[in-house]
Amino acid sequence: MQASRTSAGRSAVSTAEHAPLTVTNEPLLLFDEVSVEYQGMNRAAVSGLSFSVQPGERVALVGPSGSGKSTILALAAGLTLPSRGDVQILGVSSDVIGNRRHRPVRSRIGIVGQDYALVGPLRAATNVAAGRLGQWSLPRAVRTFVRPGPVDEIRRALNAVGIEDKIWERTDRLSGGEQQRTAIARTLFQGPDLLLADEPVSALDPARSEAVMAVLAEQAADGHRALVASMHDAPLALRHCSRIVAMRLGRVVFDRPSSDVTDEHLSALYLLDNQATE
Question: Which listed CATH number (3.40.50.300, 3.40.50.720, 3.90.1300.10, 3.40.309.10) goes with 1-16+26-108+195-278?
C-alpha cells in the first residue's frame, strides 16, 4: 500500500483504549462513482467504483495483479484521493480526513501494508505499541519508545499471531514472515474500527495463513468493526471473509457473499483477464 497521501489525477502523481463506533446502519466505508487516474497509465487504476462496507463485514478484494485492489485500500485509508467521485471513511470525506481535527477518526483506521512500516532497530514490543500512538498524548507516546506497554496487551497481540516469544527481539533480526506478523500484531493492538490489510499473509506458510486470517476476521465479529483485505489466495478468502469483491482492470466484476461465489466465478475472473490482455 502507498505510504503517503496523494491526489491521483489532481497532482498527478485487540484491545484498544477507545470505545468502538456506535453500531448504526451507516457504512464505515463508502465509494461513490470513484475513479483514480495516474500519469503514465493508459487506463484508470480504478473506474466507476461504487460500493459500501458495513460494520461487521469481512470483505476480500480478489483479482489478478494490477486489477486495482491496492488502490482501493489506499483510497480507503485516505492515502490516495479520487480523481473523480467521493470516498467517505468513517463518515468523513477523504478530501478532509487528513486535517488535524480528524486525528481521532484516523486513529480508528488500521493498516497492514505490504511494506510493514516497522522500525527495524526497535524491539517487536515497541513496534506493536506504536499502533496506539494516534490515541495517546505526546508525552505518553514518547515514553512508549523507552518502555513499551501495556506489556500484557502487547503479549496478547503477538500471541494471536504466534510470535509472543519474539516480544523483545529487534525487529530487523526477525524473518520476513515474523516481521509481517509483527505488523499485524500492531494493528490488533490498535483495535481499529476499519481494518485494511494488503496481502496480509503473503509471507506466511499455509497453516499460519489460516490462523492469521482467522484472527483478522475475528476483529469484525462483534459487529462494530469491518475488515477489508486484498488477497491473491481466493480459497483462503472464501473461508474467512463474508463477502468477495472481484476486480479486473480497475472495475468490479462481481460483488457477492462468499457463500454464493463458485469455482466458475473465480475461473472466469482470471480467464477473462488473460483474454483481455493478450
Answer: 3.40.50.300
